[in-house]
Amino acid sequence: MSPAERPRLLIIVGSSRPGRSGHHVARWFEGRVHEHGGFEPVVADLAEIALPFFDEPRHPRLGDYAHQHTRDWSKIVGAADAIVFVTPEYNHGPSAVLKNAIDFLHAEWRDKPVGFVSYGGVAAGTRAVQQLLQIVTTVRMVPVFDAVAIPFIRRVIDEDGELTTSPLMLSSSAAMLDELGRLLRLLRPATARV
Fold this sequence. Notes:
The protein is globular. Strands 1, 2, 3, 4, 5 and 6 form a six-stranded parallel sheet that branches. The chain has a single domain, classed as Rossmann fold (3-Layer(aba) Sandwich), CATH 3.40.50.360. Strand 3, helix 4 and strand 4 (113-119) form a beta-alpha-beta unit. Helices cover 42% and strands 15% of the residues. The chain is of the alpha/beta class. The chain starts with 7 loop residues before the first strand and ends with a helix.
């Protein structure tokens, strides 16, 4: 399957703070997606997209966006067939910038399979994922069970921002991508209607 024929997997970097690890984790995961071969990865870094704090005057479910930054974000998410959030854990939850990015849109998320690559300390970002599960199901995304959780992130990133890959990271990323592909095939009729 050529890259143009592969489903588009949007990898969203869910942190924007200086000194973050998310962009390194996203680059590592993008490599796993290429190796897997089932998707064409597209990375959306929320630090570069720089959405303001939610500023649309009308409810996102209407899709009547007043601002160009929202229309641009809508195009990025709307073009995706599946989503993976790369998320840190801040105070046992996801970052405010990631929650804000989700809140900007509605129909663009609907009926799309979603996975998570989380990272942090001992909990590996898993508490953030638990909160995100409530959020993504509210906008009618379909989360996969398989996930990648990277504990003690500072120990696996070298000075060049490269991750040391463990066998568990490889197996969990492959399992998640397989499951995203399976769900996408089941959900295609639903996403075609949106």
